[in-house]
Specification:
Helix content is 47%, strand content 15%. By secondary structure, the chain is α/β, with parallel strands linked by helices. The longest helix is centred in the N-terminal third of the chain and has 46 residues. It is rod-shaped and about 120 Å long.
Protein backbone atom coordinates (compact mmCIF):
# COMPACT_ATOMS: atom_id res chain seq x y z
CA UNK A 1 0.00 0.00 0.00
CA UNK A 2 2.82 2.29 0.94
CA UNK A 3 4.58 1.69 -2.37
CA UNK A 4 1.40 2.28 -4.33
CA UNK A 5 0.69 5.50 -2.48
CA UNK A 6 4.28 6.59 -3.03
CA UNK A 7 3.93 5.97 -6.71
CA UNK A 8 0.71 7.91 -6.80
CA UNK A 9 2.38 10.82 -5.03
CA UNK A 10 5.36 10.62 -7.40
CA UNK A 11 3.02 10.72 -10.37
CA UNK A 12 1.12 13.64 -8.97
CA UNK A 13 4.35 15.42 -8.22
CA UNK A 14 5.57 14.67 -11.79
CA UNK A 15 2.39 15.99 -13.29
CA UNK A 16 2.74 19.15 -11.27
CA UNK A 17 6.33 19.63 -12.41
CA UNK A 18 5.30 18.87 -16.01
CA UNK A 19 2.56 21.46 -15.84
CA UNK A 20 4.97 24.04 -14.45
CA UNK A 21 7.50 23.26 -17.18
CA UNK A 22 4.80 23.41 -19.84
CA UNK A 23 3.57 26.73 -18.45
CA UNK A 24 7.08 28.21 -18.59
CA UNK A 25 7.55 26.93 -22.15
CA UNK A 26 4.25 28.58 -23.22
CA UNK A 27 5.31 31.89 -21.64
CA UNK A 28 8.65 31.81 -23.44
CA UNK A 29 6.86 31.05 -26.76
CA UNK A 30 4.47 33.98 -26.21
CA UNK A 31 7.33 36.38 -25.55
CA UNK A 32 9.21 35.17 -28.63
CA UNK A 33 6.10 35.58 -30.82
CA UNK A 34 5.51 39.11 -29.51
CA UNK A 35 9.10 40.21 -30.20
CA UNK A 36 9.04 38.66 -33.69
CA UNK A 37 5.69 40.31 -34.52
CA UNK A 38 6.96 43.73 -33.42
CA UNK A 39 10.04 43.40 -35.60
CA UNK A 40 7.90 42.39 -38.58
CA UNK A 41 5.56 45.34 -38.06
CA UNK A 42 8.57 47.65 -37.86
CA UNK A 43 9.93 46.25 -41.13
CA UNK A 44 6.58 46.65 -42.89
CA UNK A 45 6.33 50.24 -41.74
CA UNK A 46 9.79 51.01 -43.05
CA UNK A 47 8.95 49.40 -46.44
CA UNK A 48 5.84 51.58 -46.73
CA UNK A 49 7.82 54.72 -45.95
CA UNK A 50 6.38 55.22 -42.41
CA UNK A 51 8.59 56.65 -39.73
CA UNK A 52 10.06 54.10 -37.36
CA UNK A 53 8.16 53.70 -34.07
CA UNK A 54 10.14 52.91 -30.94
CA UNK A 55 9.63 49.37 -29.82
CA UNK A 56 8.65 50.63 -26.36
CA UNK A 57 5.39 51.87 -27.88
CA UNK A 58 4.69 48.54 -29.56
CA UNK A 59 5.47 46.07 -26.83
CA UNK A 60 3.03 45.76 -23.94
CA UNK A 61 4.19 46.26 -20.43
CA UNK A 62 6.07 43.24 -19.14
CA UNK A 63 7.05 42.23 -15.63
CA UNK A 64 10.63 41.63 -16.92
CA UNK A 65 12.20 45.05 -17.66
CA UNK A 66 15.53 43.57 -18.58
CA UNK A 67 13.98 41.36 -21.27
CA UNK A 68 11.90 44.26 -22.65
CA UNK A 69 14.89 46.60 -22.80
CA UNK A 70 16.98 44.01 -24.57
CA UNK A 71 14.19 43.33 -27.03
CA UNK A 72 13.75 47.10 -27.71
CA UNK A 73 17.47 47.47 -28.24
CA UNK A 74 17.47 44.53 -30.64
CA UNK A 75 14.51 46.02 -32.55
CA UNK A 76 16.22 49.41 -32.89
CA UNK A 77 19.46 47.78 -33.97
CA UNK A 78 17.62 45.76 -36.65
CA UNK A 79 15.66 48.80 -37.96
CA UNK A 80 17.36 50.45 -40.97
CA UNK A 81 18.24 54.11 -40.57
CA UNK A 82 15.87 56.51 -42.38
CA UNK A 83 16.89 57.86 -45.80
CA UNK A 84 18.57 61.29 -45.88
CA UNK A 85 16.12 64.12 -46.15
CA UNK A 86 15.48 65.38 -49.67
CA UNK A 87 16.61 62.32 -51.60
CA UNK A 88 13.09 60.91 -52.07
CA UNK A 89 12.00 57.51 -53.28
CA UNK A 90 14.14 56.24 -56.15
CA UNK A 91 16.35 59.41 -56.39
CA UNK A 92 19.61 59.06 -58.32
CA UNK A 93 22.71 59.00 -56.11
CA UNK A 94 24.90 62.10 -56.27
CA UNK A 95 27.97 62.00 -58.49
CA UNK A 96 31.00 60.74 -56.77
CA UNK A 97 34.41 62.28 -57.12
CA UNK A 98 35.91 65.76 -57.05
CA UNK A 99 34.53 68.40 -59.43
CA UNK A 100 36.52 69.43 -62.48
CA UNK A 101 36.43 72.11 -65.20
CA UNK A 102 35.51 72.31 -68.88
CA UNK A 103 36.97 74.93 -71.20
CA UNK A 104 37.62 75.56 -74.89
CA UNK A 105 37.88 78.15 -77.66
CA UNK A 106 35.53 79.39 -80.42
CA UNK A 107 36.83 80.51 -83.84
CA UNK A 108 35.38 81.43 -87.23
CA UNK A 109 36.11 79.90 -90.62
CA UNK A 110 39.14 82.16 -91.05
CA UNK A 111 40.68 80.84 -87.85
CA UNK A 112 40.19 84.09 -85.93
CA UNK A 113 38.85 83.89 -82.39
CA UNK A 114 35.16 84.71 -81.98
CA UNK A 115 34.05 86.87 -79.07
CA UNK A 116 30.48 86.77 -77.74
CA UNK A 117 29.47 83.25 -78.78
CA UNK A 118 26.85 81.66 -76.51
CA UNK A 119 27.94 78.42 -74.80
CA UNK A 120 25.48 76.20 -72.86
CA UNK A 121 26.61 73.31 -70.63
CA UNK A 122 24.08 70.55 -69.90
CA UNK A 123 24.85 68.15 -67.04
CA UNK A 124 22.88 64.90 -67.27
CA UNK A 125 24.31 63.30 -64.10
CA UNK A 126 23.42 66.08 -61.66
CA UNK A 127 21.43 64.99 -58.56
CA UNK A 128 18.38 67.00 -59.57
CA UNK A 129 18.47 65.88 -63.21
CA UNK A 130 19.75 67.75 -66.25
CA UNK A 131 20.80 71.34 -65.56
CA UNK A 132 22.19 74.03 -67.83
CA UNK A 133 24.93 76.54 -67.21
CA UNK A 134 25.64 79.31 -69.67
CA UNK A 135 28.49 81.63 -70.51
CA UNK A 136 29.93 83.57 -73.47
CA UNK A 137 33.31 83.46 -75.17
CA UNK A 138 35.65 86.26 -74.10
CA UNK A 139 37.84 88.55 -76.20
CA UNK A 140 40.28 85.68 -76.79
CA UNK A 141 37.45 83.39 -77.90
CA UNK A 142 37.75 81.19 -74.80
CA UNK A 143 35.12 79.95 -72.36
CA UNK A 144 35.41 78.15 -69.01
CA UNK A 145 33.11 76.26 -66.61
CA UNK A 146 34.47 75.61 -63.09
CA UNK A 147 33.20 73.28 -60.35
CA UNK A 148 31.62 70.85 -62.78
CA UNK A 149 30.66 67.49 -61.23
CA UNK A 150 32.07 64.45 -63.02
CA UNK A 151 29.85 62.64 -65.46
CA UNK A 152 28.38 63.00 -68.94
CA UNK A 153 27.94 66.55 -70.27
CA UNK A 154 26.88 68.31 -73.47
CA UNK A 155 28.28 71.61 -74.82
CA UNK A 156 26.25 73.68 -77.30
CA UNK A 157 27.83 76.69 -79.05
CA UNK A 158 25.70 79.18 -80.99
CA UNK A 159 25.98 82.67 -82.44
CA UNK A 160 23.78 84.89 -84.57
CA UNK A 161 24.08 84.03 -88.27
CA UNK A 162 25.99 80.79 -87.61
CA UNK A 163 24.91 77.15 -87.40
CA UNK A 164 24.88 75.81 -83.79
CA UNK A 165 27.39 73.11 -82.83
CA UNK A 166 27.28 70.51 -80.06
CA UNK A 167 29.77 68.26 -78.26
CA UNK A 168 29.01 65.36 -75.88
CA UNK A 169 31.74 64.16 -73.54
CA UNK A 170 32.53 62.66 -70.13
CA UNK A 171 34.27 64.55 -67.32
CA UNK A 172 36.24 62.42 -64.88
CA UNK A 173 36.94 63.23 -61.25
CA UNK A 174 39.05 66.40 -60.85
CA UNK A 175 39.67 66.51 -64.63
CA UNK A 176 40.49 69.70 -66.55
CA UNK A 177 38.71 69.00 -69.84
CA UNK A 178 39.86 70.95 -72.91
CA UNK A 179 37.11 70.72 -75.55
CA UNK A 180 37.95 70.67 -79.22
CA UNK A 181 37.93 74.05 -80.95
CA UNK A 182 34.49 75.10 -82.14
CA UNK A 183 34.65 76.58 -85.67
CA UNK A 184 31.51 78.57 -86.47
CA UNK A 185 30.10 78.02 -89.95
CA UNK A 186 27.58 80.32 -91.58
CA UNK A 187 24.09 78.89 -91.16
CA UNK A 188 21.54 78.56 -93.94
CA UNK A 189 18.82 81.21 -93.66
CA UNK A 190 15.78 82.10 -95.72
CA UNK A 191 14.20 85.51 -95.97
CA UNK A 192 11.41 87.10 -97.91
CA UNK A 193 12.63 90.17 -99.76
CA UNK A 194 10.14 92.59 -101.21
CA UNK A 195 11.55 94.84 -103.91
CA UNK A 196 9.56 98.00 -104.55
CA UNK A 197 10.38 100.22 -107.51
CA UNK A 198 9.65 103.94 -107.52
CA UNK A 199 6.90 105.41 -109.69
CA UNK A 200 9.49 106.96 -112.01
CA UNK A 201 11.21 103.57 -112.46
CA UNK A 202 7.92 101.84 -113.25
CA UNK A 203 6.98 104.59 -115.72
CA UNK A 204 10.39 104.32 -117.39
CA UNK A 205 10.01 100.56 -117.83
CA UNK A 206 6.54 100.99 -119.33
CA UNK A 207 7.79 103.81 -121.57
CA UNK A 208 10.48 101.55 -123.00
CA UNK A 209 7.78 99.05 -123.93
CA UNK A 210 5.62 101.77 -125.50
CA UNK A 211 8.52 102.95 -127.64
CA UNK A 212 8.59 99.54 -129.31
CA UNK A 213 4.93 99.81 -130.38
CA UNK A 214 4.70 100.31 -134.17
CA UNK A 215 1.78 99.86 -136.52
CA UNK A 216 2.80 97.30 -139.13
CA UNK A 217 6.12 97.35 -137.25
CA UNK A 218 6.89 100.71 -138.99
CA UNK A 219 4.64 103.61 -137.91
CA UNK A 220 5.24 104.85 -134.33
CA UNK A 221 2.40 104.18 -131.92
CA UNK A 222 4.12 105.59 -128.85
CA UNK A 223 1.26 107.64 -127.39
CA UNK A 224 -0.93 104.66 -126.43
CA UNK A 225 -0.75 103.08 -122.97
CA UNK A 226 -1.93 99.47 -123.11
CA UNK A 227 -1.10 98.84 -119.44
CA UNK A 228 -4.35 99.08 -117.42
CA UNK A 229 -2.72 101.09 -114.65
CA UNK A 230 0.18 102.85 -116.35
CA UNK A 231 2.31 105.01 -114.08
CA UNK A 232 2.29 108.77 -114.76
CA UNK A 233 5.18 110.20 -116.77
CA UNK A 234 7.69 112.60 -115.32
CA UNK A 235 8.33 115.93 -117.13
CA UNK A 236 11.56 114.55 -118.55
CA UNK A 237 9.80 111.43 -119.82
CA UNK A 238 7.11 113.53 -121.53
CA UNK A 239 9.73 115.54 -123.43
CA UNK A 240 11.65 112.37 -124.23
CA UNK A 241 8.58 110.72 -125.72
CA UNK A 242 7.78 113.80 -127.83
CA UNK A 243 11.35 114.07 -129.09
CA UNK A 244 11.58 110.39 -130.08
CA UNK A 245 8.34 110.74 -132.01
CA UNK A 246 9.62 113.79 -133.92
CA UNK A 247 12.98 112.31 -134.89
CA UNK A 248 11.67 108.86 -135.79
CA UNK A 249 12.44 108.01 -139.44
CA UNK A 250 8.81 107.05 -139.99
CA UNK A 251 7.76 110.62 -139.10
CA UNK A 252 9.88 112.05 -141.92
CA UNK A 253 8.56 109.46 -144.40
CA UNK A 254 4.93 110.11 -143.48
CA UNK A 255 5.40 113.88 -143.68
CA UNK A 256 7.01 113.46 -147.08
CA UNK A 257 4.02 111.44 -148.27
CA UNK A 258 1.54 114.06 -146.98
CA UNK A 259 3.49 116.86 -148.71
CA UNK A 260 3.38 114.94 -151.98
CA UNK A 261 -0.38 114.48 -151.64
CA UNK A 262 -0.81 118.21 -150.96
CA UNK A 263 1.20 119.12 -154.02
CA UNK A 264 -0.73 116.68 -156.13
CA UNK A 265 -4.03 118.28 -155.05
CA UNK A 266 -2.50 121.76 -155.06
CA UNK A 267 -3.32 122.20 -151.39
CA UNK A 268 -1.60 125.24 -149.88
CA UNK A 269 -1.48 126.63 -153.40
CA UNK A 270 0.47 129.64 -152.28
CA UNK A 271 3.58 127.47 -152.11
CA UNK A 272 3.32 126.79 -155.84
CA UNK A 273 4.50 123.67 -157.62
CA UNK A 274 7.81 122.12 -158.43
CA UNK A 275 10.62 121.28 -156.10
CA UNK A 276 10.35 124.58 -154.24
CA UNK A 277 6.64 124.18 -153.65
CA UNK A 278 7.17 120.61 -152.46
CA UNK A 279 9.97 121.69 -150.12
CA UNK A 280 7.77 124.40 -148.59
CA UNK A 281 4.94 121.95 -148.06
CA UNK A 282 7.34 119.44 -146.58
CA UNK A 283 8.82 122.05 -144.23
CA UNK A 284 5.37 123.25 -143.19
CA UNK A 285 4.34 119.68 -142.45
CA UNK A 286 7.40 119.13 -140.26
CA UNK A 287 6.67 122.40 -138.46
CA UNK A 288 3.04 121.45 -137.89
CA UNK A 289 4.08 118.09 -136.44
CA UNK A 290 6.81 119.54 -134.24
CA UNK A 291 4.66 122.36 -132.82
CA UNK A 292 1.64 120.17 -132.25
CA UNK A 293 3.65 117.34 -130.65
CA UNK A 294 5.74 119.59 -128.39
CA UNK A 295 2.81 121.74 -127.28
CA UNK A 296 0.18 119.01 -126.89
CA UNK A 297 2.53 116.20 -125.88
CA UNK A 298 5.19 117.83 -123.69
CA UNK A 299 5.06 121.53 -122.81
CA UNK A 300 1.39 121.88 -121.83
CA UNK A 301 1.12 118.41 -120.20
CA UNK A 302 4.10 119.33 -118.03
CA UNK A 303 2.51 122.70 -117.21
CA UNK A 304 -0.89 121.25 -116.28
CA UNK A 305 0.47 117.93 -114.95
CA UNK A 306 -1.50 115.84 -117.42
CA UNK A 307 -0.76 112.60 -119.25
CA UNK A 308 -0.73 113.04 -123.07
CA UNK A 309 -1.29 109.33 -123.84
CA UNK A 310 -4.46 107.51 -124.83
CA UNK A 311 -5.32 104.82 -122.24
CA UNK A 312 -6.56 101.72 -124.02
CA UNK A 313 -9.59 100.08 -122.37
CA UNK A 314 -9.79 96.82 -124.32
CA UNK A 315 -12.46 95.20 -122.08
CA UNK A 316 -16.17 95.64 -121.48
CA UNK A 317 -19.01 96.06 -123.91
CA UNK A 318 -18.54 97.70 -127.29
CA UNK A 319 -20.71 100.58 -126.17
CA UNK A 320 -18.52 101.30 -123.16
CA UNK A 321 -15.39 101.11 -125.30
CA UNK A 322 -16.85 103.50 -127.91
CA UNK A 323 -17.84 105.99 -125.21
CA UNK A 324 -14.39 105.66 -123.67
CA UNK A 325 -12.63 106.38 -127.00
CA UNK A 326 -14.81 109.42 -127.80
CA UNK A 327 -14.56 110.85 -124.29
CA UNK A 328 -10.77 110.53 -124.32
CA UNK A 329 -10.57 113.17 -127.05
CA UNK A 330 -11.52 115.82 -124.45
CA UNK A 331 -10.44 114.19 -121.15
CA UNK A 332 -7.19 112.69 -119.91
CA UNK A 333 -5.50 111.25 -116.85
CA UNK A 334 -3.86 113.71 -114.53
CA UNK A 335 -0.53 112.95 -112.97
CA UNK A 336 -2.45 112.59 -109.69
CA UNK A 337 -4.42 109.66 -111.15
CA UNK A 338 -7.71 111.56 -111.54
CA UNK A 339 -9.40 112.26 -114.86
CA UNK A 340 -9.37 115.86 -116.05
CA UNK A 341 -10.41 117.99 -119.01
CA UNK A 342 -7.67 117.60 -121.60
CA UNK A 343 -6.57 121.23 -121.65
CA UNK A 344 -3.23 120.21 -123.10
CA UNK A 345 -4.72 118.75 -126.31
CA UNK A 346 -7.47 121.37 -126.78
CA UNK A 347 -5.37 124.45 -126.18
CA UNK A 348 -2.39 122.83 -127.83
CA UNK A 349 -4.42 122.42 -131.03
CA UNK A 350 -5.55 126.06 -130.93
CA UNK A 351 -2.02 127.27 -130.34
CA UNK A 352 -0.57 125.16 -133.13
CA UNK A 353 -3.22 126.46 -135.56
CA UNK A 354 -2.47 130.05 -134.62
CA UNK A 355 1.28 129.58 -134.96
CA UNK A 356 0.89 127.98 -138.39
CA UNK A 357 -0.39 131.32 -139.73
CA UNK A 358 3.16 132.58 -139.36
CA UNK A 359 4.55 130.33 -142.12
CA UNK A 360 1.49 129.39 -144.22
CA UNK A 361 0.95 131.29 -147.49
CA UNK A 362 -1.10 134.45 -147.07
CA UNK A 363 -3.87 133.00 -149.21
CA UNK A 364 -4.11 129.96 -146.92
CA UNK A 365 -3.93 131.69 -143.57
CA UNK A 366 -7.02 131.43 -141.44
CA UNK A 367 -8.56 133.96 -139.12
CA UNK A 368 -9.48 133.40 -135.51
CA UNK A 369 -12.82 131.82 -136.39
CA UNK A 370 -11.23 129.36 -138.77
CA UNK A 371 -8.60 128.53 -136.17
CA UNK A 372 -11.28 127.54 -133.69
CA UNK A 373 -13.05 125.56 -136.38
CA UNK A 374 -9.81 123.72 -137.10
CA UNK A 375 -9.44 123.02 -133.37
CA UNK A 376 -12.91 121.48 -133.33
CA UNK A 377 -12.06 119.40 -136.37
CA UNK A 378 -8.87 118.36 -134.63
CA UNK A 379 -10.88 117.19 -131.59
CA UNK A 380 -13.22 115.17 -133.81
CA UNK A 381 -10.22 113.74 -135.62
CA UNK A 382 -8.79 112.75 -132.24
CA UNK A 383 -12.02 110.90 -131.35
CA UNK A 384 -11.86 108.99 -134.66
CA UNK A 385 -8.21 108.12 -134.03
CA UNK A 386 -9.09 106.84 -130.54
CA UNK A 387 -11.79 104.60 -132.00
CA UNK A 388 -9.23 103.12 -134.36
CA UNK A 389 -6.86 102.63 -131.43
CA UNK A 390 -9.54 100.88 -129.38
CA UNK A 391 -10.76 98.45 -132.05
CA UNK A 392 -8.20 98.19 -134.87
CA UNK A 393 -4.71 99.47 -134.24
CA UNK A 394 -3.76 97.04 -131.50
CA UNK A 395 -4.28 94.12 -133.88
CA UNK A 396 -1.87 95.82 -136.30
CA UNK A 397 0.77 96.44 -133.64
CA UNK A 398 2.92 93.32 -133.23
CA UNK A 399 4.99 94.27 -130.16
CA UNK A 400 2.31 94.96 -127.56
CA UNK A 401 3.10 93.48 -124.10
CA UNK A 402 0.58 91.05 -122.62
CA UNK A 403 -1.06 92.85 -119.73
CA UNK A 404 -3.80 90.26 -119.22
CA UNK A 405 -2.32 89.26 -115.84
CA UNK A 406 -2.39 92.86 -114.67
CA UNK A 407 -6.09 93.20 -115.44
CA UNK A 408 -7.08 90.22 -113.31
Amino acid sequence: MVSIKKRVNDCAQGKTMGLKAFSRLGLYFLLAWTVTGAAAQQAVRLDLGWSATPSSEILPETPHPQTANSQSANSQSDTPSPAPEGTGQGAAPPSSGAPGSIHGVVTNLDGAVYEGAHIALALAAAPTGETVRQTASDSSGRFNFDDVPPGTFKLTVSAAGFAPQALVGTLHSAESYEAKAFTLAIGSTTADVEVTASTAEIAQAQLKEEETQRIFAIIPNFYVAYAPHAAPLSPRQKFSLAWKTLVDPATFLITAGVAGAQQATNSLSGYGQGTEGYAKRYGAGLADGAIGTMLGGAILPVWWKQDPRYFYQGTGSKRSRVLHAIAWSVICNGDNGHRQVNYSAIIGGLAAGGISNLYYPASDRSGVGVTFENAIYGTLSGAATNLLQEFVVRRLTPKVPNYAADKQ
